[in-house]
Give the backbone structure.
Amino acid sequence: MKASERIGQVLGLFTLTAPERGTAEVASLLGIANSSAHQLLNGLAETGLLRKQAPGRFRLGPMVNALAQVLANTDRLIEAARPVVAKTAADYGETCHVVELAGGRLTALSGQAGHRPVGVARDWISGETPLHAVAAGKLLLAHLATADLLRLLEAMPLADFTPATVTARSHLRDQLAEIRATGYCAAAGEWHADLATCAAPVRSHAGTCIAAFSIAVPVSRFETQPRAYRTMTLEAADRVSARLGWRDPDRRAGHIALPASPTLACNADEECPA
């Protein structure tokens, strides 16, 4: 394995639920010798990509944050996504993200929490979000090259979260083919019973899907107007794509009215699980 691939694997091990890792733990997760893990982790700590917390214990380092700031201020996709994410969240009150697939994991490039009394937390998307149980993951999988998709599906565990979760690989492949053909995905209650997500492709100037615009809402609210949420998601994705130089002659942006008093999916003073 190339050194760059191994470095990517190591950095990908640090998540919101596992922000700190030990040498033996990394060695076990990567299937390498403790001595190799020790050398790799200490080397990354010297570059600032990791920070040594204690002997044999590491967290992400300051260089990661510095690189993230550079990316956030120079990446054209992030620049195009920010105002559309902010406006869509403000107009409709729902939690919105632009998401890409990196190293087999979802990465939020831009995100904004909704302002409705009952909604979904902004940080529901992370490297631990299951691709097969949320709309953004499925949509981005659907637009992978066939060889890349088959390789990822072979290695990806299809955990069973709710009765609605798709766990059969043949069923998932059929679903992905339909998503690619329609250019839209909705997943209701597949990861959490009261979480519905919608996603549509963000395209480059050449029309290639490079990210997904995602909207997350309580299932009960989604079920009142699924077509409105579909239109909202598609139009928001088109707006980001247009800022990147792409135009779809078959769709025009518009404003879709949603219910003023939606059915509440959980207690008014609580946030829906995400």
